[in-house]
Amino acid sequence: MGHKMRLNMLEVKRQLLHITIGFVTLILIIWGILTPLILFLIIVFSAVLSILSKRYRIPIVSWFLENFEREKEKSRFPGRGFISFFVGVLLATKLFEQNIAYASIMILTLGDSISHMVGIHLGRIRNPLNGIKSIEGNLAGGLAGFMGAIFFVNPWLAGIGSFGAMLIEAIQVKMNETIVDDNIIVPLVAGAIITLARSLIF
Fold first, then answer.
1. What is the pTM (predicted TM-score) of this model?
2. Which end of the chain is more exposed for a tag (fewer CB within 10 A), N or C?
3. 74 near 132, Cβ under 8 Å?
4. Which residues are CB-contacts of 7 (< 8 A; sequence separation ≥ 6)?
5. What is the C-alpha separation between 202 and 33, in angstroms, rounded?
């Protein structure tokens, strides 16, 4: 019971950090501080730190890994979530028009995090598309992402994009038998759905 509680608290801390980084990142993008080039450099620099952290203790980086990283990732791919988050953000900013990119980042920031937290603590009905995640988590994530996206696109598009992204997120997309990270899948799917829906309907 104690071990499960520690795991749950770790996931809560991870998702709260995810939300914080997401909001700060979006604000800095809107202000023009985080350009695509800087986002790319953050990804490269973080990847280098990830490799080095497997062999050396790096101030600040090691503290974050010890307090927020899942055990299985510490030895395999330290900082994977952080790096994949910025990959997802960079792809969204490059592939979609400004407001759709912002909405996609909000769906990633709120939808993905809330779905994990609600699924862990309140999830009771297993999602038939996944078997691990819960229906309650996916619905809560869809609603949270919708609430963030409506600041940038109209409510219909926000709803379609957010709930559509949560649906695909539950499936667990694989490439060469490797599960593609949610941080990449969610903003790409959200942005693609919103773009397509707007061109067909609105």
1. 0.86
2. N
3. no
4. none
5. 32
**In angstroms, rounded to a whole number, what is the distance separating the alpha carbons of residues 88 and 95?**
11
What are the tens digits of pLDDT across the range 118-172? 876 665 656 555 555 667 778 889 999 999 999 999 999 999 999 999 888 777 6
CA nearest to 125, candidates 140, 115, 137: 137
Residue position matching structure tokens 């990119």: 101
In the DSSP assignment, the letter for residue 132 is S
The region, left, alpha or beta by phi > 0 then psi within -120 to 50, assigned to residue 90 is alpha
Q: How many domains are contained in the chain?
A: 1
Any idea which residue has 């953050």 for tokens? 42
- Output b/e per residue, 51-86; b: 16+ Cβ within 10 A: eebeeeeeeebeeebeebbeeeeeeebbbbbbbbbb
